[in-house]
Task: structure prediction
Amino acid sequence: MKIGMAYDLKEDVALSAGQPEDALEEYDCLETVQAIATALEFLGHVVVMLGGGKDFLINILQNNVDFVFNIAEGRGKYRSREAQVPAILEMLNMPYSGADPQCLTICLDKPLTKKLVAEASILTPAWQVISDIKELKGIVWDSFPFPAFVKPAYEGSSKGIRFSSRVESPKEIPGAVETVLEKYGQPAMLEEFIPGDEVTVGIVGTPPQILGIMRVLPRQGCDPNFIYSLEVKREWEKLVSYECPARLPPKTMQDIAEASLKAFKVLGCRDVARIDFRVDTQRKPYLLEVNPLPGLRPGYSDLPIMAQEMGYEYKTVIGLILNSALRRQNLPCLGVTTQPY
Ligand SMILES: Nc1ncnc2c1ncn2[C@@H]1O[C@H](COP(=O)(O)OP(=O)(O)O)[C@@H](O)[C@H]1O
Ligand SMILES: [Mg+2]
Result:
């Protein structure tokens, strides 16, 4: 099969004046694209690099590909940016891997995701969206649980997530909210801070299966107030260790798996997703967010690290995602399967 790859490289996107220093954090590096291409070639396919943005538009029309492996994050600050490439592929009636435009758009919008999962009885921390600093005057914080956490409403890749995102009391809210509104040009979401374990869950396949449930542990010792921030992620080798499968009680693991598979279904995810949770001191898992386009950088992104800990080679994970997409669309695929968790 001739497979086109859609992706956005950091070096292809210009950082404009006034943007925060983490503005390009979600974009990929060439190493990731090459690792995926090598895995696809290993599975017997021919790979064509389509890139992202305008290059993608030109390349998808000029190259006669049969299928697109999509990891493109999209361009601009738009909350629907991840839907750009899949929307074009649907317009061209071209099969592709991963979630559709609607799912990608919903999941980048954290408050909307939380509304939908809460509706499905999945636990998620209490939240409040602030779109304008003037709105703060009308909000009474008496019943809102503190400490709280302030983050951009439509971001991922730890953009806008810092140690300073945690606020201890209502008087710290205006400063933290203003930073998000100004630096990220979008609403801020205030969320109840859940002290406890940091857990992320990988899901792959059609039908979806749990790839792994991984706990992220600070190296300096157990800390219920640990934040998996951009600072930590960038220096993960020094600051965190990964435990997969997480050594949590069987009932907690079952609750996390059930909530993950339910969220995957409710939000309309396909082929792959990574779902982040905090597990509180009562062992209750709270869903933080759903990533239908999880990072795939070998040895760096959570999903490949988790897969490695579970004994899957990188190329097997790519094969599982690809074959899930092919099977879903009744296209011929090679026989890579997941082992039951
Ligand atoms: N409500 C919260 N309670 C405790 N920690 C949180 C909360 N929200 C975010 N965090 C911390 O910040 C990290 C990143 O938040 P997340 O919502 O997953 O954003 P991103 O899309 O950038 O990954 C989490 O993995 C967690 O460590
Ligand atoms: Mg996250």
